[in-house]
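[Meeting: bench + compute handoff]

Bench side (C.D.) handed over the final construct sequence. Compute side (W.E.) agreed to return the predicted structure before the next meeting so the bench team could plan truncations. Sequence as handed over:
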Amino acid sequence: MLSSVVKLFGLSAIVVLVCCALPSRADAAVFRDRAAFNAASQNVHTIDFESSLNVDLVFGMSEIDGVFFQSPNFARIDTQQGNKVLVADTLTEFTRLTIFLPPGTTAVGCDQFNTPMIVSTSTGESVTMNQSDASTFVGFVSDQPIQSLVITLDFPEPTPSAIVDNLSFGQRRAGNEPPVPQFLTTSNAARAVALDSVTNESEPFHVLSAHNFATDGHTRITLFLVGVALEPADQAFVTVQAEGAGQALIDLPVEATARVKNLSWISQVTVRVPDTLAGAGNLNVTVTVRGKASNTAPLRVD
């Protein structure tokens, strides 16, 4: 399942993150205290690099838990002050580490210890970390997607390397409102990232399948979401509807909810394809979690 998700979505994520135009930012905040950042965010995932292999990362671009790290010189996992951290070494007095964040990220924060260092986001916020700072943490929360975090410096000489520890990312918290789910879609056609739960094949799907673990022979489709952290116990709070050509809404029974293994920021919802969708063709599908509806994404049932 994981390799199929990466094939459909993960490898094209960089293109989406780099090329998509950002809407104007209306509301953003900078935090220098992790507790305050945590209070302003939700569904936070943290990469502390302790579980990452203590080996050099691939030159240029590396990936950990679906987060991409890019450095023009060399990025590596190192042990400093007893902790494993990510280090991006300086290249000819210039330091730059770009962290491409998962889609749907509206909150990001990290600890880094080399100073000075400039930390900025794709939404326009920027902080210069100085030796005189009382805090080594910086966090950002925005009402618009934060597509990347950049850590950079071209002064003084010698320019220090960038160090990142405890990289946290998730969604901003808007009062007591539950988070809004976001459908993962393909970058080339904006169609739902969806797989047959048994064969891992993508659309078009069929109501019945010869490869099936269920005695009823019906196809089960796995849908992928970001912005929500779903566990098996959340199944009762998730509904899925499909809208066909006649604008009739058809419920797709939800049979399972979970996280995607090794990509903890992605949740998956498994639904059964009912008889009423036979030959339906293109459908617009929406997932609702605790009363919050996702974006609509198309998939095909023949």
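W.E. noted at the follow-up: Residues 2 and 261 are 7 Å apart (CA to CA). C.D. will use this when planning the next construct.
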